[in-house]
Amino acid sequence: MGILYGLPMRAGLPEVTQAVFLAWRGALEWIRWDKKITLSTPLWVGAWLTHTAKLQGFSKWDKIGISLAGDVVGTEGVKSFAELQEEYGLHHTQFFNYLQLRHALVASHLEKAGMSEFNPLEAKLLQGALGRGGLSRIYKSLIINSPECFQPLRNKWEEQVGTLDEEDWRDARAAPREIAISSRLRFIQLKFLHMAYKTPTMLHRMIPGYSPNCPKCAHTGADFLHMTWSCPSLQDFWNGITRIISRVLDREIELTPRSALLGILFDLGGRRGERAFIGMATMIAKRDIARNWMSREAPKLSVWKAGVDWVSKLEEPIYAARGCPGKHEKIWGKWWSYYGLNV
User: 237, 299 in Cβ contact below 8 A?
Assistant: First the structure.
């Protein structure tokens, strides 16, 4: 708890534990709740309530349940000693400790009521309200509590692909978690959404003398859209993928940066399973583009097809374990039938 609320991480912590602490701190900064005290802030540990954390002789208070700011701060402000005696059975000899605590709370500006009970992450993590789908609810909290943080990114994409209405932009933000099961592929989609791969034009601004030209076609000013879509070498790659997907689905589709890069798939029509298949097929294409990012050669269709085969087989036991093998059939059935695989 102390580390969650600002104490430095001690040496020797496992990397996975460090990642949890860093994710917690990063999320609080993202939603602008870092160092904001709530009724769920711990009293005796951490670096946020520094005045109470320095107090000595309160181990008994902690053991009987007085451990959070909300345990001693009520609707009218700091609770009286009589209220704490009635609620927790404090002995009268603890009155001096109470005066110390009240002074520390006043010094921490907690003498007034009106603090939030939780911040959006405390409510879900510390109060044990996660359960099934809890991680998705955390993501939703991050989005709801910081929607303005996405606006500059949305503006960048609109410069590249045209106007995105609210529904389009919501689908683009949801694509990393809704299209793929694989965490690795989700991360690639997230990096595409945030234009996180460094382009030659970006490196040219960062490194004096670095060429801003595309490594595949020597186009000057290779920005993100060029490196992921409009480069002639990549257009051949995307056109090949479009032809194969159209044959598999037995209908003509037209991939665009909106559908292929951002994962906005509704406009492509067809059933939901078909759109999910297109989303996965284009996700593998983006993986291959990322692998060949600064290569002189474009990704190969044969490698892309092998990747799609691999994902289709990888997901079969996952859907079976989830009790919905029919969903795998709806997504991958036509692909397997077209290439003569066993469904």
Answer: yes
